[in-house]
Every structure is written in structure tokens, then in C-alpha cells.
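Record minuted for completeness.

…
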Amino acid sequence: MEPPQGSAAGGRKRRRRGGARNRRKALSSSQQAPPLASAPPPPSSPPAKRRRKDGAGQAAATPKRGITSSKLDQMRARLSAGHFRMLNQTLYTCSGQDAFDYFKENPNYFDVYHAGYQEQMSRWPEQPVNIIINWLKSHNASWTVADFGCGNAAVAKNVDNKVFSIDLVSDDPSVIACDMAHTPLKTSSVDVAIFCLSLMGTNYPSYLEEANRVLKPSGWLVIAEVRSRLDPNNGGADPEKFSKAIIQLGFSLVSKDAKNKMFILFYFRKKEKSKAAKSIDWPQLKPCMYKRR
């Protein structure tokens, strides 16, 4: 026999009221219980980047971080310095003819080399070419000069003398491009021969022999050389042996200036009547080698 409908409805109502009372009790007991350790809050999202406002009041886009112009300049300078070191080492470790052929095929490399050379020289407290220029100015302006390995032809640009500027390659029409062991200058035609940091080839004695050929009797041979290349305590040549070899070529040593910490200056004079020794013991000048960076 089915229960009356009213009884069933009343039972459902009583169960709902009982469920509500149970929930209120549970809530009351949870408020009296000690709190549980709360879980760490989720990481907050990064704050939105502020946008600058331009003069019109509109938001300007925040510039992206990247390589600044100063960093690019530093990178270019490092690449240029590395290229210069490579070319400089090449010049020290090959013959003059090989260097002439190399730069003739790659004339742009010569510009890179001289740009690096000028940058390196700017760090020296004193430059030997300036000393040589002042020495020439204090002597006879009628002297004819041969500048072997002239670079940017600083000597010719700063003295009143007639100067034959000689180098491997040049876009300057006033510079004679050739191997310095074989120049087009006439025999006994110049009064001064200059080698300013330019005795770089493995066959450097042939450059000095060529200078001896073109110099007049009593002519001057002026040499500026990196000090480390003439430091026997550091693998370089003995400067006394270097001088002795040039004396055997037919010169006398007038003076030597070794007070500068970066280079040594030699002033030789060609003898009036002399013959070069048949066999000269030329010391090997230390090449400038660079460690990989």
C-alpha cells in the first residue's frame, strides 16, 4: 500500500531542513578550528611595461632592447683590430715580394692594415716618424729622401725635402708601389734613406742593400725599429749584432737613441769609399706574433 503523498512531502521537507542544520553546524565548527596553512599564492604576472607619452599625449612604444650603437662600434673595432693583427703578422713572416703580390691582389687589405696601424700608433706616447721629421727639419732641406715603407707618406707631407715615398700598395699617385728590395730609384741618387718600423719582411737585409745602392756616399740611413724585436732577453736580435751587420754593409754608426720604451732609433752614415763584406751575418729580427683571442 503506497504511503500518503502528504507524508512523503513532509519527509522531504524535514530532510532538507536537517541538511541545512548540518551544514550550519559544520560551518560553525570550521570557524572555531585552528586555521590550516594556506597554499602559496600563484606567481603574479609581471607588471605591464609603462609606456612613455610623447608630446601629443599619445603612448609611445617602449624601445626594444638590443645591440646599441656603442656596442656595434666596439664589435667593429675588435674585428678591425683582429684583421690588422693578422695582416701585420703576415708582413712579418713573408718575403717582400710575397707581401707585394698579396696586397696587389687584395689592395683593400692594405687600407685595413694602415687604418689598424694608425690606431695602434695613436696609443704610443711618442711616434718615431715625428722624431725623424723633426730631425730632417733640423738638417738640410735640399737633401733628397727615400722613405721605405712610407705608409700614409707622413714624411713627404711634413718636410720641404724632395721625398720618394715607397710602399707595397697605395692609391696615392705620389707613392711608388713596389717591393722595397727592388725600387726604380737610380744608384747614388738620395741623401737620406728612412726605414720607420718597416723592416718587416723575412728578407729585410735585401731592403738595406737596396738602400745602400740608392744612397750617395756620406748619405744617411735612419732606422726606427720596435724595441721588442731587438731585445735578446725576449727572443729578439742583439742590437749590437744588428748594428755590426749594417756596418759591414758599408756604414758607420753615428748615434743610437734607445731611451724610448717602445722603439730604438739608429743613425748610420754611408762611408765615402767602402765595399760591402762578401758575407754578412744578419741577425734574425723577432717577428711580431699575436696570440689567438
